[in-house]
Amino acid sequence: MTGAERVRQAIKEANRKGRAALIPYLCAWDPDLATTRALLWALAEAGASVVELGFPFSDPLADGPTIQAATQRALRHKPTLEEFLEFVAGLYAEGYPLPIVVMGYYNPFFRFGLERFAREAREAGLCGAIIPDLPLEEARPWLREARRRGLASIMLAAPTTPAERLERIAQVSTGFLYYVSVTGITGARERLPEDLVLRLDLCREVSPVPVAVGFGIARPEQVRMLAPHAEAIVVGSALVKIVEAEGSRSPEKVKRFVKDLVSATERS
Amino acid sequence: MLPNKRGKFGPFGGRFVPETLMPALTELEEAYRRLRRDPGFRRELAWYLREYAGRPTPLYPARRLSEALGGHLRIYLKREDLLHTGAHKINNTLGQVLLARRMGKRRIIAETGAGQHGVATATAAALLGLECVVYMGAKDTVRQAMNVFRMELLGARVVPVKSGTQTLKDAINEAIRDWVTNVETTFYVIGSVVGPHPYPMMVRDFQSVIGRETRRQILKLEGRLPDMVIACVGGGSNAMGIFYPFVRDQVVKLVGVEAAGQGLESDRHSATLTVGEPGVLHGMLTYLLQDRVGQIKGAHSIAPGLDYPGVGPEHAFLRECGRAEYVAVDDEEALSAFRLLSETEGIIPALESAHAVAYLVKIADRLPRDTIVVVNLSGRGDKDVAAVRDYLSGKMA
Ligand SMILES: Cc1ncc(COP(=O)(O)O)c(C=O)c1O
């Protein structure tokens, strides 16, 4: 099975059980790689479906203060993509059950070489990538390499995206389509836009791949409200805040919190 | 005609931004392409440039500087330092803020490093009665406290940015985050020929008034084109502005001068084109100061306006195809030129502009008799006198 298929299957599997799939985001190396490993196992035990693992970048311009701070903590370790892929390969060697996709800004991949990255990602077992500063018009070289290696090329759509453009984005997205819930940056929010549910329904009508909704989702109530309207739900900053507060002791707390989120994914 | 429809100058440029901004960039590009041909808009901009900013600026024959450099050269200074607010930045901010008003955007945001672009944006916003928010690295707000106060006097709100290196690149990140969040109501006024398409093209066009005037003036004064045009390069807007109308005149040598800071080996410089490598930052593919992994490095220069780890994509292109040459001079060389121009011509240049002068000083001996050289004097040095005093008295390491 290709990486893109694994991601899609994992989401379908949750959907078959009457749930939206939960996709937690964490920043690798925050606060260190040993904690990241423990956190990833905690996510698997808590019932998450897919993991979005951030590769830190010095200039995270789509991220709010929480993930910016995580990025700063992670960058102290001077991480490289080689180490990132080794880490992922190591997890799968230990039998890690969930598909992992990387979330990262374009420049490190560009520097590494797209062909080389796609090839080595596949060898490591990484399932795909989300590149928030690589819109449709610039994505062609990456889409080609991702397709060649069966990696999920997860594209983003936003509330500002016109309908016709949304369709074109959905057509090239594999694994899932990432629908950005708010006009804004990442970060936990008290309230989500009122027309979000409506827009998600429209999005799912045109998307040949499952639709995940993310940005700002932080609480079980929000997950419960959105679960019937999306195939998957991404939660990031709310988890990163726990890591920020608890450091190497965070896996237990994260596990409990993710369990609560997963229970809220039931599509009654 | 460059850039192409996708905003590419050869392989450089483009639009590497979050999806949320893509429709806004399309809207901006359409509005700009329509208005730049609109006679009403052109008249309006020309009127403000003339009556408010002080255009045209003189092309001044710097005889005493020529003498000091051996007396064999015909040196001209393009006096952007005489403009309102003291630098070329106002050419661009008047253009963009007028565009914003035509597009019905009532809220202006900008980034600033030294504060020059922030002041020029706050000025244009005050003039047209628009709300203005300026993002500035927290470190820069301390180093450039006077410009913070100036922006506040002009009615702008200055937001210190505490993330990352707390300097210009982080201020741009924060301005982009604001724009992503408030894109429906807000116009982002970028301060140089950087960022996603259409900014590099649009800022170049607004700054090209410098080169168009220079061309006309030198033909009148000398009856021929200059042999060489020299400008400093931070993001590259004053350089692009003076280069652009000469790009097709192959006889005119175009030289961009970057900041070598404390030396190119020191890691304390801003010589992006000289020693950087291609990468993607702030929505564009261009030369960047970055490490092996692709993390962006901090930049340094004694001239705060040159302190940026990227450069406009059109400069990357001009360098790649060999049409322009890029060189670097260090802090000490720039300071010497700063003093030389002050003493010989009674003109205290901005430290940024002093880099362009410094390169001329460096190569003067090698240039043949009667070479016509135009140096773009992008700004005046009032903003720098305190820092230079501290530096010379050894307080600033
Ligand atoms: C006087 C002056 N010259 C040059 C620059 C560098 O910008 P650019 O390379 O866009 O002209 C600045 C920037 O603040 C400036 O204030």
What do you see in this structure?
The complex is a heterodimer of chains A (268) and B (397). Chain A contains twelve helices and nine strands. The mean pLDDT of chain A is 97. Chain A has a nine-stranded parallel beta sheet with strand order 5-4-3-2-1-9-8-7-6. Chain A has helices at residues 3-16, 33-46, 65-75, 81-93, 106-112, 114-124, 140-149, 163-172, 196-206, 220-226, 237-246, 250-263, and strands at 21-27, 51-54, 100-103, 128-130, 152-154, 156-157, 177-180, 211-214, 232-235. The radius of gyration of chain A is 17 Å and the shape is globular. Chain A is α/β, with parallel strands linked by helices and 268 residues long. Chain A is 49% helix and 13% strand. Chain B is α/β, with parallel strands linked by helices and 397 residues long. In chain B, 43% of the residues lie in helices and 19% in strands. Chain B is built from 16 helices and 14 strands. Chain B has helices spanning 22-35, 39-53, 63-68, 89-102, 116-128, 138-143, 145-153, 168-181, 199-207, 209-222, 237-243, 272-275, 313-320, 331-345, 351-363, 385-392, and strands at residues 8-9, 12-16, 59-61, 74-79, 107-112, 131-137, 157-161, 186-189, 228-232, 253-261, 277-281, 283-288, 324-330, 372-377. The longest helix of chain B is centred in the N-terminal third of the chain and has 15 residues, at 39-53. The interface between A and B is large, with 45 and 37 residues. The complex binds pyridoxal-5'-phosphate. Pyridoxal-5'-phosphate is lined by residues 87, 114, 116-117, 192, 232-239, 305-306, 350, 352-353, 378-379 of chain B.
